[in-house]
Amino acid sequence: MARRNLEVALLLLRTLMARGLSHAVLCPGSRSGALAMAAGVLEGRGLILHTAVDERSAAFFALGLGRASGRAAAVITTSGTAVANLLPAAVEADYGTIPLLLITADRPDRLKGCGANQTVNQECFLAASVRWLGQGDGSGLAAMADGAIIQLAEAALLATAATGQPPGPVHLNLPFEEPLHADGLALLEAADGLEWPECIGPESRAPAPAPPRPAGGMPRPDPDRPGVVVAGPWRGLPQHWDAHVEALRRWQRRTGWPVLADGLSGLRGLAELDLVAGYDLLLDGSDVSLQAPQVLRLGPLPASRRLQRWLAGLDAQHWLVSESDPRGLDPLGTGCHQSAAGLAAWVAGWPHATWRGQPSSVALQLAAAWRQREDALQVMLSTVLPPGSPGEPALARALGTLLPAGLPLVIANSSPVRDWESFGDPAAPARPVYGFRGASGIDGTLSIACGVAEALGQAVLLTGDLALLHDSHGWLWRQQLHGRLTVILINNDGGGIFEQLPIRTTPAQALDFERLFAMPQPLDPLELAAVHGVPGRRVQAASDWELQLAWALQQPLALLEWVSDRRVDAGRRQELRRMAAVPELQP
User: Looking at residues 156-184, what average pLDDT do you find?
Assistant: First the structure.
C-alpha cells in the first residue's frame, strides 16, 4: 500500500505537470507524506517546489504566483485544520478570478464520522469558493486505476481556468489509506523507474487559456454618441493583457470616449490612451456635470465612493464587459448590459464598418471637458504635493516616479490602494500594478507579494502596518525567495483607514477609538523583520526616498519604514478634496 501511495502521487503530479503545472507549495504533514515524497522526486525535473510551515501563507504565496503568471500553482497540505487555513486565499481567488489548485490529503471514508484523530469534513470547507471539487476514491487514492487518476488531475487543472467560467480555485481532496510512507528503497526504485520526458518549460507544456467567445444578442452602445469608459481593477489573465489594451485603444480612437482609469487597471502611464486619473477628487455625490448618456464599464467598479455615487446618479445606459466573469458585477443596480466575453473579443465582434467612422463632435467636446478638469487637477496636485513633501498622499504621488519604469507594484488594501487611486501621478511610467480587491481583505499581504516577486523576478509592496503584521509569517519566505521584493511600510500606528470615517467625532468618554478601531500594536516592524533575517531602514525624511530605495531595490528582501501621523494625513486628504472642488477646476 505504501509503495502504491507513492506511485499514484507521482502519477498525479506528473499529469498536472504535463498539463502546465510548474510551481507547488508544500506544507508539512503525515497524511500527505506520499505527495511530499513525490514532489521531492519531481523537484528540478520540471517542478519548482516551495515549502511553508503555514498553510495560510502558502496559499497566498501561490495566489501571488497565479495572479502574476496567469497559471495555477498548487498547494499541498495534510488533513484536518490545515485545510481550513486555505479558505481566506480560496475566497480571494474566487472573487478575484485567480487560478489556484489546492491539493489536500484526507483520511479514508472508514475513518469518517467515528471520532478518528484529525478527521473532519474537510471536503466541505472550501466548497462555497471553489470552481470544482475533485474527490479521490473514498477507500484511498491507491485504489483508483491509473486512468482515473489521470482524468482527475486533468479535470482539476482545466477547471482553474476553463472556458465559460472565470479562473479560480479548485480543490482536489485525496484520501490516503495506511500504511502511508514508502521506505527509502521504494522511493529510490520509484524515482529510478520513471521515464522522464525532455525538460520543457511551463510555457511550452500547455497553451495559454483561450479568451472567451463574445456573446451574441447583447445590445450595443452607440459609438456615434458621447460616453465614458470606466476601467476598474484588471482581473484578466496576463496572457490577454496586450489584446485588452489594443482593443481599448481601438474603441477610444473610434468613439473619443475618455477613460476613467482606476489605479489598479494597469492603464495609467500607457501611451495612446486619453486617461482620467483624478475622477475621485473631481466628482462628488451631487455632481451632474460631465454627464454622459452612455457608460462602458470594464470589470469591477473602482473603490471610489464618489465615482460610484456619480455613476448611480447618471441618466445613462450602462454596459459592463468583464474578463470571462459572468457573475453579477453591478452593485449600483443600474440594470447594465453585461458581457463576460472580455474587451478584446467584445470589440472584435463589432461589424467592420463600425471602425471606419470618426468620433462625433459632441463626444469630443465631452472628452475635452474631462481633459480640462483632469489637467487642472493634476497641476494642482503636483503643486501642493511636490517631491519631498511629507504625508501619505504625497508618498502615493511620488512613488510612481521614484520607482524604475516597469517595476511591478503590489498595493495592500485599505488606505494605500485608495491613496494610489486618488493621488497617484498619471504622468509616472507605466508598470504592472497588483491589488487584491476580490474580497478586499488584508489577509496574506506579504505572502502574496512574495509570490508576485517570485513569478516576475522583482516587485515592490506598498502596505500599512496592520496588513503587514497580519501576515508576519510571510517574512519566512526570505529563505527561499528567488525574486527580489522591496517592502515599503507606511507605519501610521494602527488602522489609518478608520481616521477617514466620522467616528472620532464621538466624545472620547463614549468611544475608545484607539482600542476599538485603530488598534495600534506595540511592535517595532524593523525588529520583527530583523528577527527573520530581513534588513530594514527607517526613512527619516521624504527627501531620502531616492537614496533609500536605491539601497533597498538591490537587496533580495528588504523593508523600508515610513512613519506617518494618520490623523494629520486624514486632515490632509480632506483639504486636498476641498482644493479639488474650487471653481478653477470646474468646467
Answer: 87
